[in-house]
Each structure stands twice: as structure tokens, then as C-alpha cells.
Design a protein that fits this description.
The protein is 67% helix and 8% strand. By secondary structure, it is mainly α. Strands 1-2-3 form a three-stranded antiparallel sheet, covered by helices on one side. A hairpin with a 4-residue loop joins strand 1 and strand 2. The longest helix has 92 residues.
Length: 152
């Protein structure tokens, strides 16, 4: 148990648990299992690295206990790996959807600008016609003003 959760003296910190789990890969045994089997020239012993229990006189009940805990640990390990894979897949899917939406937005923006550029000649043509009308009207006013000035 993690320190503070149980309030017991036998509780351990999360860091210590991670350290013990990483140690399990250095020794012989099932992956994720707390039980390790050591074979020396003088004896064979079981060692539970999470509790620190060491068994030198191996009996059937100890083997059953180790097998039961190995199966349980194996299932927990499989569940953790499945969860991690699902989490990674969901994270990747989220970013792929975000990227797709961003690319779609950028494409629509670009497509809209292209359509505006294609239709821009119409606006330019209307501005030119308006300017021509304004120029003709200004010339008519200037001609009328000049005639009045010339008459006086």
C-alpha cells in the first residue's frame, strides 16, 4: 500500500514500489511476479521481493501460493499493458482528429481565398466603371464651371 493511504507502518511509498518492480526484471522469475526463485550451489529458495519474505524449505503450499500470486500478477500486468495501449491509442486518435480538423480548416480557408481571387476581376471591373463615371461627371462639372468663368 502507498504511504498515507493505509496509515500502517508496513505501507510503502510509490517510489519504493516502482523500485521493487524494476528489480523484478533483474532476477529470474515471471515478469511482474513478486516471487523469484534463486538457485545456489548449496540451496534453492523462493523470495518475495514485495514483502521481503524468503522461503528456503519449499513445500507444496509455498509453490501453490507462488503460482497463485504469479497468475494474479500476470493478469494485473496484462490489464495494465492493455490499459496503457488503449490510452496511447486514444491519445493518438485525439491528435489525429485534431490534425484532420486543422487541415480541413486550412483547406477551406485556402479554397475560399482562391474563389475570391477568381471573382476579384468582377470587383475590379465594377470599380473601373465607377471611376470612369466619376471622371465623366467631373469633366462635365469642370466644363460647365469653365464656361461660366469664360462668360464673365
Amino acid at each position: 500500500l502507498f504511504e498515507g493511504m493505509a496509515g500502517l507502518s508496513k505501507s510503502m511509498t510509490k517510489g519504493r514500489l516502482r523500485e521493487l518492480q524494476s528489480l523484478s526484471h533483474q532476477y529470474v522469475g515471471e515478469e511482474g511476479s513478486p516471487w523469484k526463485l534463486y538457485a545456489c550451489s548449496s540451496r534453492i529458495q523462493f523470495h518475495n521481493i514485495s514483502t521481503g519474505q524468503t522461503i528456503t524449505a519449499i513445500k507444496k503450499k509455498h509453490i501453490r501460493q507462488a503460482v497463485r500470486e504469479n497468475l494474479h500478477s500476470c493478469e494485473i500486468l496484462k490489464a495494465r499493458r492493455t490499459f496503457a495501449e488503449m490510452k496511447q491509442q486514444a491519445y493518438r486518435s485525439m491528435w489525429e482528429q485534431h490534425a484532420a480538423k486543422t487541415i480541413q480548416y486550412m483547406y477551406r480557408l485556402w479554397k475560399g481565398r482562391q474563389q475570391v481571387k477568381r471573382k476579384l476581376w468582377i470587383v475590379d471591373r465594377l470599380r473601373l466603371k465607377k471611376r470612369e463615371k466619376e471622371t465623366k461627371a467631373a469633366q462635365v462639372i469642370q466644363d460647365a464651371f469653365r464656361r461660366r468663368i469664360d462668360e464673365t
